[in-house]
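From the methods appendix. Each design record in this collection lists the tokenized structure first, followed by the designed amino acid sequence. Records were kept in a plain field format so they could be parsed without special tools. The example shown here is representative of the layout used throughout.

RECORD:
FOLD TOKENS (291 positions):
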């Protein structure tokens, strides 16, 4: 089973990256890019030193250019190139609708070392999600997944590949019952779940939680469209409720164990507070002058 923290990560001081020099002394460093760079012109930098940079990717932002989006569509690698003055090296990915911490290397050697950690399953990844129904208090999903191929980007890939091993640990943090009728039920139940994937298959968390009959709210591919609509109509939620909240890895140069945490945004914070879930997820640190 996964090693669960005894309490949520709610830091009140210092940099959110726990190791190395960080030019952003507060929790998040906002870098304003030129207006012609992209419509999403702010980079929320969680951790940066001369070797690596970790960014809080918003939901809806592509990590790379995509065949399925117009060429002018903003993407994170483009924003990083504008900020750094050179291309960043991709270490891992987040789906377009997923928000949260994503890590890049600043040179090929660093990227290679970090890729080896991901491949060797030495990186601990933590996510938060909202699921339909009350999940078990905790569980471990060991269910192999067939590779999901994109009709355009993967049109030359083999469709005969066997299913790949995939494991996901999860624990329920909280529940809520809402007075919203969906289908034949007058009320609807949901869970706030902390998830730790042990492998990194495409859409793994989304597919695994669907496999145990608790699809994610806002998931248009693997979720329940009726509950997605309920959240949109009643709460204005038009995104996947899946957030990459923490990465823990060995710094590729110093070797020190490094933890980078991404807070939920203000909209998600307000939504979760309304459900009585405050204190169960990471928040952005406030300046000392804020109340």
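DESIGN:
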């Amino acid at each position: 089973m996964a090693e669960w923290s005894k309490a949520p990560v709610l830091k009140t001081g210092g940099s959110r990256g726990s190791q190395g020099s960080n030019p952003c002394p507060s929790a998040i460093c906002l870098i304003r890019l030129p207006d012609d760079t992209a419509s999403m012109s702010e980079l929320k930098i969680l951790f940066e030193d001369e070797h690596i940079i970790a960014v809080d990717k918003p939901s809806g932002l592509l990590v790379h250019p995509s065949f399925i989006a117009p060429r002018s569509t903003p993407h994170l690698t483009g924003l990083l190139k504008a900020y750094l003055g050179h291309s960043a090296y991709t270490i891992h990915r987040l789906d377009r609708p997923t928000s949260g911490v994503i890590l890049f290397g600043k040179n090929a050697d660093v990227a290679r070392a970090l890729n080896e950690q991901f491949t060797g399953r030495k990186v601990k990844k933590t996510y938060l999600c909202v699921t339909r129904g009350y999940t078990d208090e905790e569980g471990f999903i060991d269910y192999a997944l067939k590779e999901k191929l994109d009709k355009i980007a993967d049109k030359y890939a083999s469709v005969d590949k066997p299913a790949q091993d995939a494991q996901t640990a999860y624990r329920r943090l909280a529940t809520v019952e809402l007075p919203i009728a969906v289908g034949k039920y007058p009320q609807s139940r949901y869970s706030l779940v902390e998830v730790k994937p042990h492998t990194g298959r495409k859409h793994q968390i989304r597919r695994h939680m669907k496999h145990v009959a608790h699809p994610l709210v806002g998931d248009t591919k693997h979720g329940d469209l009726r509950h997605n609509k309920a959240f949109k109509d009643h709460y204005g939620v038009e995104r996947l409720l899946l957030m990459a909240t923490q990465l823990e890895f060995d710094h590729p140069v110093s070797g020190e164990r490094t933890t980078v945490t991404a807070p939920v945004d203000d909209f998600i914070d307000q939504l979760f507070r309304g459900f009585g879930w405050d204190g169960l997820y990471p928040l952005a640190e406030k300046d000392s002058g804020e109340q």
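APPENDIX NOTE: The chain has one domain: 29-274.
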